Amino acid sequence: MARLYDSRKRILITGGAGFLGSHLTDRLLEQGHEVICVDNLFTGSKRNIDHLHNNPRFEFLRHDVTFPLYLEVDEIYNLACPASPIHYQHDPVQTTKTSVHGAINMLGLAKRLNCKIFQASTSEVYGDPTVHPQPEEYWGNVNPIGIRSCYDEGKRCAETLFFDYHRQHRLQIKVARIFNTYGPRMHHADGRVVSNFIVQALQGAPITVFGEGAQTRSFCYVDDLVSGFIRLMETNDDVSGPINLGNPGEFTILELANKVIELTGSKSEIIYNEMPQDDPKQRKPDISKAQSVLNWHPEIELENGLERTIAYFKRLLPELTQN
Fold first, then answer.
1. Please, which residues have CB within 8 angstroms of residue 268's CB and are 6 or more apart in sequence?
2. Which pLDDT score is estimated for 278?
């Protein structure tokens, strides 16, 4: 049975030392809750949570979610899984295990505690979409045996598990499909396009664009995304999702590269490389459901968010800043 002592909740966040998890931890602590941050530090970093160790309502536990976990909490946010191609392709079998075994273990914990559980799913469940923009009703176009499949199919299977636990055990679930998100605390070497471009620009190195840069992405600033997480978790129990969370503003990769060069004042040149296998050509969320059900929409424009993210990388990596 879940703990129901007062309005303060004890909340478990798996992947809590990661980019998204650490921002979610900050927000929940600001709201007065207790947070247990669980992370095996494969892609997460203690640096992201160093500022919290003197907070009496914060606790860090180094643990791999592919193994069972026994805690007493009121809510669970399951964010554990490497999310960038470089990281999730490093050990693809472990990536699938993290999504699938991790979901089974966290769902089992939620079932024992009879508590609400949130799943950080992904727009990658849509694969290389044939429908644009992507609504939640779209089933996707995913290669089940490609180099990205460990992440794409792992997340799809996790969604299946969440909804089967919901139907079979009446578990309260919340499933969000996250579109490209950026902001401070991104890993500088995660290979994702925003961090890649910013680091390359600050170094004065060539900015690497795949293909002709005509593929599109929609970029959501991390503060907006975290607001969506909490709004979904707090909404009516009959709203399970999946719900798209992302910024519907659509930009080509080449537009992003030029914007980063402009904002950093870099002299970097753009070079073009061959497209990676199964890289989606278009990605844009249909967020009409999030707007109508959660009354949520992103507020931070790309230029504003990029300025904040560039400032973070300048502080983190002063050696990258051009003299």
1. 200, 201, 203, 204, 205, 206, 207, 261
2. 62
- Cβ(312)–Cβ(199) below 8 Å: no
Segments of 194-247 assigned E as strands: 207-210, 216-218, 220-221, 243-245
**pTM for this predicted structure:** 0.91
Instruction: Say which of 77, 126, 151, 221 is annotated catalytic.
Output: 151
Residue 18: C-alpha distances to residues 13, 180, 186, 205, 306 (Å): 10, 15, 8, 27, 19
- Does residue 255 have a pLDDT over 70? yes
Task: State yes or no: is 151 an active-site residue.
Answer: yes
Of 308, 101, 92, nearest in space to 221 by CA: 308
CA distance linking residue 100 with residue 109, whole number of Å = 14
Cβ atoms of residues 302 and 216 within 8 Å: no
- Going from the C-alpha of 153 to that of each of 97, 98, 144, 163, 187, the distances in angstroms are 11, 12, 7, 15, 23
pLDDT score at 150: 85
Tell me which H or E stretch contains 158.
helix 149-169
Q: What is the mean pLDDT of residues 140-164?
A: 92
